Amino acid sequence: FTTLNFMQPEIEEKIIKNKLGKISKKVDQDIKNIVRLANLIRNSFQASDISIIMSPRTSIIWAQNITIFGDTELAFKLTFFNKCDENDKKIINEFYQRCFGRELI
After folding, report:
1. Distance (Å, whole) CA 100 – CA 34
2. How far is 34 from 48, CA to CA, in rounded Å?
3. Which terminus has fewer CB within 10 Å in the chain: N or C?
4. Which tens digit of pLDDT belongs to each residue from 45-79?
């Protein structure tokens, strides 16, 4: 068997920033929280607490949508959250609150 782990958070942040190009300070902080949330979701998936995983590609798309919509929460819902199972949404909402300091509405 071979195990493929996710990349280090710092590396994932750099990749997202490189994909976006020039970013504002707010988006820079959002990227740190995006990666933090993605890792919480990945750890929860590995522990079989939730049934969906957040890929690095999803993190990139979320960050791109933040620059398009100017709204972190809306971008998250459109990119990932709306695809989740109702049971998963409760846990992911808690993770979102930990990372961004507010609940999803």
Report:
1. 9
2. 21
3. N
4. 999 999 999 999 999 999 999 999 999 999 999 99
